Amino acid sequence: MEEYGIFQVTIPLPYWNDNVHCYLAKREGKWIIVDTGLKWEATRKTWEEVFAKHGIDPTKDIESIVLTHQHGDHFGFSGLLQEWTGAPVHLNEIDRELSLYGWTPETFQAYYLSAGLPQESVLQLQENAAAFVRPTSPYPTDLQPLNAGDRFQLGELAFEAIHLPGHTPGHICFYNEQKKLLISGDHLTRETMPYISYHGYGDSNPLQTYLATLSKMQAMEIAAVLPGHGPIFYDAQERIAEVIDYYRSRLDAVRELAAGGRTAYEISLAIFPADRSLFQKWIDLGETNACLQYLLTNGDLQVREEGSQKKYYRD
């Protein structure tokens, strides 16, 4: 992709996937950035090194910053990067609204206690910036809407913004029809399964949204996927089929585990390895909740409030 003036920028993360891929594209002496990384010092250091490598003056040469979605590892550094470069930030309006959401201690505790997490775990998670969502700070002052159909010249290639929701409600991918290239953000990845989760806000049935999106993507011609995590890959349709199969199997497992009445956390512990860190258990719970929301919406499960907890049953 570098022959087309598009460069992958890999930025470290302190959790989970270890790093995130952003993209940098040159056009007529100006540069566009796709995704920004997490708000922490390693991100600034990486961008400093990348700008120096390419001879970029960040105060003059960055034309715009476009974002696939609002999660912290993609959006978190956008306000600081805008202060640094003066470039406008483009984000889909649905995700812009979601990016303004923030937990209060009371709502956070109530939600996760109802899911069956022990209070001690809830209090520990409340100290984790990735779990206890707060609006990005500093928030971009020049935040422009990014809509499906918008076009960007990334290097020598024209890319169209495509709304592919599921990972977030406003997730945008960028597609070049000429070379059949997809900059996929977190929508489609190879190394790890794309993460579809529900944590009490946003789309109430994200897995149904995601599976419907994948079904539509089966008609797309995709020669290569440039993801937000993991390797670039060239078997998009095979991967789409694998992801659909994975989540269909996960739905079957959750449906069976809920037969006798369990909390979301109990179901999650029955599916995933028990020796995971608390943060990873929070990740696992998000995926389990997405499956439960799907099954509830489609009438496969019922939920009952028992004290402060919600328990799921099959009729």
From TrEMBL:
Ranges of residues in domain Metallo-beta-lactamase: 19-229
Classification via Pfam families: Lactamase_B
Reactions catalysed according to its record: 3',5'-cyclic CMP + H2O = CMP + H(+); 3',5'-cyclic UMP + H2O = UMP + H(+)
SUPFAM superfamilies with a match to the protein in the record: Metallo-hydrolase/oxidoreductase
Main function: Counteracts the endogenous Pycsar antiviral defense system. Phosphodiesterase that enables metal-dependent hydrolysis of host cyclic nucleotide Pycsar defense signals such as cCMP and cUMP.
Protein name: Glyoxylase, beta-lactamase superfamily II
Organism name: Brevibacillus centrosporus
Transmembrane segments: none
